[in-house]
Design brief:
With 89 residues, the chain is mostly helical. The chain is built from five helices and no strands. α2 packs across α5.
Length: 89
């Protein structure tokens, strides 16, 4: 939502527009883009509540479980959560 509201609707499609995200590190933004790109192609299923397991691969598709369990350490995971919250995504 933050990015959407910052985009200028009067711009031509081929014009590049910079959107400043001073509170988001480049490494974190890269992971967010990776996640959003995958999510656009293969949306995550709704997570049942209460959780039926503490094992992520039982709760969500394998890619999403691997993204959190394998590709992201705890510090980066916290930064991702904070950045996603800041960007309202």
């Amino acid at each position: 939502e933050l990015v959407k509201t910052m985009m200028d609707e009067d711009r031509e499609d081929d014009e590049i527009q910079e959107i400043p995200l001073p509170n988001v590190k480049a490494t974190v933004l890269s992971k967010i883009i990776e996640f959003c790109t995958h999510h656009d192609q293969d949306p995550m299923i709704d997570i049942e509540k209460p959780l039926k397991s503490a094992i992520m691969s039982v709760v969500v598709h394998k890619w999403y479980a691997d993204f959190v369990n394998v590709n992201v350490d705890q510090v980066l995971l916290l930064e991702l959560i904070l950045a996603a919250n800041y960007m309202d995504i």
